[in-house]
């Protein structure tokens, strides 16, 4: 056979459902998904669209060929990732408000293995909740969890004795902050 796939069908090896989702996100039918298209396609529990930083962050994670956009072969991994976060978010949104409040965030972070104070949870919410609602929607929940993970990983590679304390140089600190800027 070979050649172009039949009209409307997915290319070989691509799940038909994933292909349909890809087509619905790829609004201009260019075969690539941009930050703007992803942002339009993803909604939070309160029907607001995802913020552009989270979309850029996720595209960066799954843009394996560094084209700046998500093509069909990269899309499945991105889509699964979003669905996983959605599941985590819904699990910890115990009062079903469509957002994660401070107490819920505290439980979530604890169960993810972070040892952080309630005050720190407040700080996260203040920093990431750009809408001023004192809670996190799915987009800024993903964004803050990704940042926490990469900062924690970076800390742990330096905290080889596992004491919770590291000594670091000024430049090392600055590099960490720049690398983890979301
Ligand atoms: Ca790409
Ligand atoms: Ca909630």
UniProtKB/TrEMBL annotation:
The keyword Calcium is assigned to this record: yes
Positions of the EF-hand domain: 13-48, 80-115
MF-aspect GO terms: calcium ion binding; calcium-dependent protein binding
Tree of life domain: Eukaryota
Record keywords: Calcium, Cytoplasm, Metal-binding, Repeat
Record Pfam families: EF-hand_7
Location(s) in or outside the cell: Cytoplasm
InterPro entries the record matches: EF-hand-dom_pair (IPR011992), EF_Hand_1_Ca_BS (IPR018247), EF_hand_dom (IPR002048), Peflin/Sorcin_CaBP (IPR051426)
Keyword Repeat tagged: yes
SUPFAM superfamilies: EF-hand (SSF47473)
One GO CC term on file: cytoplasm
CDD domains assigned to the protein according to its UniProt record, in alphabetical order: EFh_PEF_peflin
Protein name: EF-hand domain-containing protein
Organism (species): Pinctada imbricata (Atlantic pearl-oyster)
């Amino acid at each position: 056979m070979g050649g172009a796939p039949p009209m409307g069908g997915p290319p070989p090896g691509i799940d038909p459902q994933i292909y349909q989702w890809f087509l619905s996100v790829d609004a201009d039918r260019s075969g690539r998904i941009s930050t703007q298209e992803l942002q339009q396609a993803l909604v939070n529990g309160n029907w607001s669209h995802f913020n552009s930083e989270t979309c850029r962050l996720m595209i960066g994670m799954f843009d394996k060929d560094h084209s700046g956009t998500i093509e069909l072969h990269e899309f499945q991994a991105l889509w699964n990732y979003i669905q996983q976060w959605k599941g985590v978010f819904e699990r910890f949104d115990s009062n079903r408000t469509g957002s994660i409040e401070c107490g819920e965030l505290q439980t979530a972070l604890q169960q993810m293995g972070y040892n952080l104070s309630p005050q720190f949870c407040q700080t996260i919410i203040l920093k990431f909740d750009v809408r001023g609602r004192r809670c996190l929607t799915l987009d800024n929940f993903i964004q803050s969890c990704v940042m926490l993970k990469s900062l924690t990983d970076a800390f742990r590679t330096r905290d080889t004795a596992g004491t919770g304390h590291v000594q670091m140089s000024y430049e090392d600190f600055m590099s960490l902050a720049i690398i983890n800027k979301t």
